[in-house]
Design brief:
The chain is an alpha/beta fold and 503 residues long. The protein is built from 18 helices and eleven strands.
């Protein structure tokens, strides 16, 4: 199986009350106005420059839109649209249903994920109709676009109260940028509503049950669906699962320690290649180089090509690429750090390709990064002091990434409160959970928490791996075999399984 490189955002990829199972009234009647008409499948190409649509068309996909209630407590009220794509099963004689993949994010579109999944998992594509659904307010679905001066909401808190206050002011401005033009939408962007949309899709397709493959933040959507609609679950696989009791505005808090550990692992790799990167001949020496860059950026912003990198931006530039632990990915991080170290020494530098990509991402204007989904799921503390105290309490153990992952977010200034309590995941629906022991985005303790919450699940662990996303990205025969046996044959492992790293 070729590797599938799913794009996950912050690990929530990123990311308690007891939420009741959805009532018939809340879910909306099966024959309600939002589901009465059959799906009208049409070309996925929207124009001559639509590369995504062309790829879908080439893969044999057709697209459609489904009207769903904006507010499920008012099923006959205002509707919004969710965009769908479908690649029919390649072996219709042995077709067993529909499979919805979701890449997480939160807020990543899923419409064209079916193309890549069909390419890298032909056995699944033979047996299932692959159906992509852009979550509500994402991609080609009814849009919710924030007016931001950046493509990414996260920033480090910096070294002191003054720099923290600056990030708090920035978070307030970002929240305000999501209000304009989105009146009446923000309160309804929750995962619970997306799960309800997903069930409307199932019904519109005429399927009694649905199968699901969700990565990262997509694992939470899958888990919420199992809680709300347990009788409609076929075979669910949750890869790099989040802690279901922590998902929301504070989902990044657990990432600090895990990313520090992943950075140490990378530093050991770089130390073994000191002749190439000249970052240090030991792990501690490489980490010392990173600390020196951090001190330099704190003293004065570094000049990196046309960009400036200060103490608030630097942690994010190191955080973003620490997701996978292949030689290729680690070489990219080393090239980034080499450029930053030279900039710290006052040299004129040109950004490495990875650094240029991330600098452009975080400094160019954007339309939001999925924050609005997190804010709708769970209320955040509105007291800036709670964030500052948390950062200070963890500076010693999480010196680089704690001030980033524990920092205040736009949710602290969100104009709307969640309309429902967070979903409490506690059920015995069968599922397969897959993850890596050293995942820097969805740390392993949170994956185990998901496993406990889904008492009917089995856990497959890729051991000694500091990576986020496993199935389709790692190419591990043990992991791939377990997932395919479940999705194709319905066979869960008889007990939790540990797979050895093979590359």
């Amino acid at each position: 199986m070729r590797t599938l490189r799913i794009a996950a955002a912050v690990g929530t990829a990123l990311l308690v009350g007891v939420g009741p199972a959805v009532s018939p009234a809340a879910a909306g009647p099966p024959g309600g106005p939002a589901t009465g008409a059959p799906l009208a499948w049409h070309t996925c190409v929207t124009g001559p420059d639509d590369e995504s649509g062309a790829a879908l068309e080439a893969a044999g996909a057709r697209c459609a839109e489904l009207a769903v209630p904006l507010d499920y407590s008012r099923p006959y009220g205002r509707t919004i649209s969710v965009a769908l794509s479908r690649i029919p099963a390649a072996d219709p004689a042995h077709r067993r249903g529909v499979l919805l993949p979701n890449p997480g994010g939160p807020g990543d579109p899923a419409l064209d994920l079916v193309v890549e999944l069909a390419e890298v998992a032909p056995d699944l594509a033979a047996r299932y109709d692959l159906v992509g659904m852009d979550p509500r307010f994402v991609g080609r679905s009814t849009p919710l676009k924030c007016q931001w001066d950046t493509g990414h909401s996260m920033r480090g808190a910096g070294p002191n109260r003054q720099t923290f206050a600056a990030t708090a002011a920035r978070a307030r401005d970002l929240a305000a940028g999501c209000v304009r033009g989105n009146e009446g939408l923000l309160a309804h962007a929750s995962t619970r509503n997306t799960a309800r949309d997903m069930d409307r899709v199932r019904a519109a397709l005429g399927e009694p049950k649905v199968s699901y493959l969700g990565w990262s933040g997509g694992s939470y959507l899958g888990a919420v669906y199992t809680q709300l609609f347990p009788g409609r679950v076929d075979r669910f696989v949750l890869d790099s699962a989040v802690d279901p009791d922590a998902y929301g505005p504070g989902v990044t808090r657990a990432m600090g320690a895990a990313t520090e550990a992943a950075l140490r692992n990378w530093a050991g790799w770089a130390a073994g290649r000191d002749a190439t990167y000249h970052l240090g001949a030991t792990r501690d020496a490489v980490l010392g180089t990173v600390a020196r860059v951090d001190r330099a950026a704190t003293a004065r912003p570094l000049r990196v090509g046309e960009f400036t990198v200060d103490s608030q931006l630097l942690p994010l530039l190191l955080f973003l690429p620490i997701r996978f632990d292949t030689d290729e990915d680690y070489a990219g991080i080393a090239a980034d750090v080499r450029v930053l170290a030279d900039a710290a020494d006052g040299r004129t530098v040109t950004p490495s390709p990875g650094l240029l990509r991330n600098l452009t991402l975080v400094t160019a204007p954007g339309t939001g990064d999925g924050t609005f989904l997190l804010c709708a799921d769970r209320a955040a503390s509105r007291d800036p002091e709670t964030y500052y105290r948390d950062i200070q309490a963890h500076r010693a153990t999480e010196p680089l990434f704690g001030p980033l992952t524990r920092n205040i977010t736009p949710c602290a200034y969100w104009p709307t409160a969640p309309t429902e309590a967070p979903t409490r995941i506690r059920n015995t629906v069968p599922a397969l959970i897959v993850g890596a022991s050293g995942d820097p985005r969805t740390p392993y303790p949170g994956q185990l928490a998901m496993h406990r919450a889904l008492a009917g699940s089995r856990m497959v662990t890729l051991d000694d791996a500091y990576r986020h996303l496993v199935f389709g990205a790692e190419g591990n025969a043990c992991v791939e075999g377990a997932v395919n046996r479940y999705l194709l044959d319905g066979v869960l492992p008889t007990a939790d399984l540990t797979c050895a790293r093979t590359r």
